[in-house]
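Database export, one record per block. Field names are fixed; values are copied verbatim from the stored entry.
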Amino acid sequence: MINRMFPEARKRAARRLRGSGWKQVDIAAALGVTQAMVSRYLSSDTEIISPGLERDIDKMAADMVSMIESQRGDAEIISAICSACFAVRERGALCSVHPVENCRVCMNIRSQGPVGKRKDVLDDVRAAVSVLEGRMPAEIIPEVRMNIASALPDAKMPAGVVAIPGRLVEIKGEIKALTEPEFGASSHLSRILLSAREGRSEIIGVVNTLFNDAVERALKKLRIGFTEFDGENIPPGWKGRCLVYRGGYGREPCLYVFGASAKEAAETVRRISLAVLEGG
């Protein structure tokens, strides 16, 4: 059923774009189809898949056109389409148009299932990125760059942890994420997070920064406790909100800030950065 809904929404989006004066070749490029397919879209009749789904299909088409015209990225458009698809499933709109009796799979697939949990973790890292992007004092940015990680509640391996591929980058004094968060994107930060969570299940997210005298003064000013470790082996029963590695041969000192979410960890890092700017 979904395989019929999306092509129909794409057909209606093509018609809307054509009505706005778009050329067929440009519509094809925007929708990721051939010009011949666009021609078929424009010449074919509207398909009524189910009266109960008409509003959803029209909204999906309108949202696609709006995002295309405002030059949103492919990832954002795909996310919106997937969200619309899940919304249709979860409210049971498909139940009346398929033959399986008493089926509730679609209604539960995201709210109680693994797909929803994975989306929540990805969204957590995106929220953390929003907190950190912008001006950041040089005293807090490590040579290896900053990153953010967030784990699924039952994660045991790096594949269950989301981070930013390539880490956060500094451009003219501002921190930016140039890529979307992905599962398994940072093996090192994932291992630190997973190890830190042993015995402390309330920890979900982490952000790494540089550690130095300015950062240590800021931590003391903000009364944020930390535990020191050797960079690999986290002490059992460690206390505080942060872990500190004071560095070694060829390795710079690092601060790992943890939180009940990646966003919470990022907010703590932002507070630390402001204290650094104020002089600790």
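Remark 1: The chain has ten helices and ten strands.
Remark 2: The longest helix spans residues 114-132.
End of record.
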